[in-house]
Amino acid sequence: MRMHGGRWADYWDEHGRLPLDFSSNTSPLGIPASARAAATVALEHADRYPDPNCRALRRALARTHNLDEKDILVGNGAGDLIDRLALALRPRRALVTAPTFSEYRIAFERAGCTVEAYRLLESNDFALDNGILDRITPALDVLVLCEPNNPTGRTTNPALLDLIVERCDATGTLLALDECFVDFLDEPQAHSLLRTLPLHSVLVLRAFTKFYGMAGLRLGWCACADHNLLRLMAEAGQPWPVSSVAQEAGVAALAEKDYAARVRAIVSQERERLASALRTSGCRVIRSEANYLLLYDQTPDLAARLEREGVLIRDCGDYDGLGPGWYRVAVRDARDNDQLLHAWEVTHT
Asked: Residue 330 belongs to what domain range?
């Protein structure tokens, strides 16, 4: 099985209880109450097939993000849409950064694509630099970027991102932009490329998994002005990919009024507090704009030691471009973060 965070079931099997999970970087507030209520009501009608076109949810997404409903495709989480994109596009060459989310490479290689990596430099705190422009050529079919990047938490300088978009347009390269964590930014609309969809060859990936804490419901979406590509993606998977329960929960989440502001306030405050405390303990912590921190710590078997204290973190040793000693921890609420710091102190004494 591939390594990812959120492996609470493994911990349960071994210890018979739930861990404090910092390996899964979802909202510290959990699923919005209105989304939980909508999911419960939707269960009353779960004897019917779900709408395969997700009409109500697509309309709500279009209203929320000022998009054309025809530009939106909904899927069973962002992972489902990444697979569909690879199968629909069938590219010959793709470029990803390293480190980044491993499912990009896996999905495109499974579709017979050659996947190359652009190395992000530790000396530059893993920020994307202008060297990426030289790698965008007419021979490149798709470039995949994650904004903010997972696991680094870094965003690309907006001026450079504009140059990347222009270069992709000029070379006929599709830019697939994973914005699953963009809502954690202070000004997500300013950084998102959703606003540029009609003008450029861009496909934007989003999900309810992270910001709305709906990891178990599996709900993602993408937006692109290339309707033929969206049609091919729709045909690349099963006809009912999204349950009616998930669809109704998504509609309700989008209607929330103060949830987003509360999440951003908690993450902004706790991210700086947690990063400062971890640096004080001797870690190197990469500056993050998301709801997680990438850090380097030389303590042997750190993840295993914390697990014995009931805390899970993401060992990033398997990420291309990282290695032993690199870890990712989620930013949760103050109470949970205090428990992490206590466990951290125990494992470092």
From this structure: 8-29+259-347
